[in-house]
Amino acid sequence: MLGVGRRRLWVEAAALGVAACAARGVLAYAASVRPPAVYHRGGRRMRALLAQVPGLHRAVWPAPHVHASVALAMAVGTKLRERRKDLTRFRRQLLRHADGGESALDWLDGGGVSAVPPLADDAPLLLVLHTITATTREAYGLAPLLLAARARGWRPAVHVRRACGGLELRAGSTWSPFGCAHDLRDALDAARAAHPSAAHTAAIGISAGSAVLSRYLGEHDAHARGAARLAGAVCIAPGYRMPHAWERVRWPYSAIVVSKLRSHFLCAQRQPHVGAGREVALQAALGERSLAGLLDAMSFVCGYGGPAAFRERCDPHAVRLRVSTPLLAINSLDDPLSVRENIDYDWFARDDPHDCAALATVPRGAHIEFVEWRGWRSPHEPWADEVALDFLAAAARDATASAGGREPEPIVAGGRVTCDK
Asked: Which of 15, 258, 269, 285 maximizes the CB count within 10 A of its CB?
């Protein structure tokens, strides 16, 4: 009897422990269900743009599985929320750059958009910049974003960077796993040349894609005028400053990224590196185990001659003060890759005469997942995609009004928009 009593006590204690853990999880989840915090300088222009983004003024319900979905997407290339077969088709436009290297534009072309009316000749262009080793059909699922943009009247395309999406590197070329601002400039020029009647052009950078987009905004777009200028830009899960972003990536995600970088850019592209006389640098990079160490070693493989030169040419932090394009950054505070310590709140609240930048943060969203939970049988909707497209639509309207020499239509602000300072 004494043994039975002890077992019963153990069972009751275990049940209480499980109940306590479950209650703690429910409370933690409930605490994460709230409207995003929005930071900006507080100028009239940005307030008007943000007021037209409903997703910034309502509670966000993060899906419970966001971290599991991201881990699976990185490790084995799948996603929990992608249950239906992807019927999306793309048309590739190859781009040859001045040094002979190649990137591409993958234009959304039928499949999944048959119910959407044909686009007008002046439909605005939207370029999406993918993550570090991914491409158009990446595990993170660009198709839902592209289809949503197409349904809203955008003409979307993915800029496929060098060595990604089946593209080969050219021996001796200088490149970056994050992408090069001059390659993005060439891609935007090619997109506008293919559709010269497009009313506007905008861009969305995702994770590593936000680095090259931010760099382009400060290096090229700040000096552009008229149709050559972006109407707006959105960075989803940016890492902000190199190399701090690399050093702060949490394990085991750092190990997964190291493995993918090594296999994607070094092993699969071995011949161009050897042909360029960079075999010693290649072997040194293959021997690195940390993410920061690997990227520093890759600076020699990429043709920059060292980490300092690589950061000078690729770090968006170096040109961020020149940015004048309407820009929205979206970060999750529980992101294990673009961690919350990277976020530069002061930059968004700085005294900026252009009043161009804003930041939206949510407590829970993992790395670029941001899906919302609408019940077990309802699809998980990507909140960040909704916010990004609404912001770009507002920026396009603002650009149209500015080009016509008149003020944008009056906006009635709603919801909660807070200022950092």
From this structure: 285
